[in-house]
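Structure request: Flavodoxin-like domain-containing protein, Didymella pomorum.
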Amino acid sequence: MDPVPSPRGYPIVGNVMDIDPEHPNESLAHIAAIYGPVFRLWLPAERVFVGSYAAAKDLFREHRFQKGVTGPLAQVRHATGDGVFTAMPGEHGWEIAHRVLMPAFGPLSIKAMFPEMQDIASQMVLRWARFNEDHAINAADDFTRLTLDSIALCVMGDRFNSFYREHQHPFVDAMVGTLTESFTRSRRLPLPSMVYSAQDKAFQLDVDRLVQISQELLTTRRAHPSDKKDLLNAMIKRRDPKTGEGLDDPTIIRNMITFLIAGHETTSGMLSFFFYELLENPAAYRKAQEEVDTVIGKSGVTVDHMGKLPYLEACLAKGDQVIGGKYTIKDKHYVTVMLAQLHRDPEVYGADAQSFRPERMEGKAFSELPANSWKLLIKTSLTIKPQDFYIKAHLRDPEFLHHAGLVSGEHVPEEKKSSKSHTKAIADSAPDNGFKAEVQGLDSAVSSLKGDVPVVIVTASYEGLPPDNATHFVEWLKSDPSEEVMGVKYCVFGVGNKEWVSTYQKIPTFVDDALSKNGATRLTDRIALDVTSGNIFDFVDEWQEKSLWPKLGGKKKESDSSVKTLSLEIDV
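Returned structure:
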């Protein structure tokens, strides 16, 4: 094996002087241009950096590599602890929070937040519309206001009202101080702690401010309980389905800080680059504008429009776009994937990889990209944004101001939030079709499927894996249990999000193929429901009416008093 290339360092400080603290990504890109896509630095701890798809693809295999919480991220733990993004692998608090929060992050749950997202977005758009056309708008600041307020309202039911403040919300000031100092602390020279006493004091004050704001939100919710099905209530009320444990207040606060920091910083950075690239590329801007005019026109934006704007999706993906059998990586060594380099790899994206061409992220072209060749970027300030990026807003239709107070859009009922809602819809329809539905988790179906009881399996993939209460069922199917499933009548209803290309419908497809391979009989072809595509509830109703119930014998006749059993297996 070849030694990993590395620029020459200095005693004690290593390669710290090779990295510009104000522009670390540019420094790393410069080093990659000299030493290639794989190189080693001492900052001052040893770390390998990877910046090409060919070298990085093995790193995305989670059975071989796991998250390393080091550098600036390790310093952020002073504020977020075992929150879902800074937890150490296997940390118990993270495992509980992960299982408690997973249902609240489902696509249907996000759709139910649409009216509140629209509320905050309308505040920003109306503010822009009321400026004169020569007013310079600080895009990064306003997108920070937009995303912070959206998360606070949707996730915690609180209004930060950032668009009604002259300065940013105090949370932003404390967050910026925490993140900036986290990066600085990760590069400190090994000097006595008294040398850094002033910086440490300021850092702790910022961390304390983040905790204080989150504690106030939690205290307010406990004092004024609500039935709102948001993340805060999920953390307060839900129990871990595996251990029965709940989340204590410190864990809730750490995760609140995590959501407010990681959620709003990454999204505001993406939106800033999205607008910057569109304004730099007039042809792409016009095409995006034409798509909005065609799909939405002058009507209000609704949640159903979200799955009908493929070019805008491609623009967003491209705006965020923009160890191979050669080197030995020893156990417990840290490797950093340079996403900015990975997203511009000419071996994947072509010779014009540096150009803003959204078409490469649209439709079939996007789905054919190699797995893991692009990632939605979680950045480390923690984020990067265009510096001194100001925009001017021109009101295309003056009538907008007369109707700006009217918000159009259908509210998605909160109970319709996951695979459970589809299972409930099928179960509710069963009596009208001569069946009594029995709903149970997939793991309970191990070795218990019956030839005289038809089975509808409603399942999804979670990062390509089954959820906790379906792992035994999937492992059982891998053992080829032909004697136990022979003759069982079944159909698989797969729920997924097409944006997760490499794992879309992975578990539903496996379950369907495994049952068929072992002798079970399909009632209908596997259903692949994409939750981003329009009115999914109408889709479920139509599938039941035209396919499921006819295959099971049609609607119950008035003279038929018999009731048959239908087994509904669900993985959530």
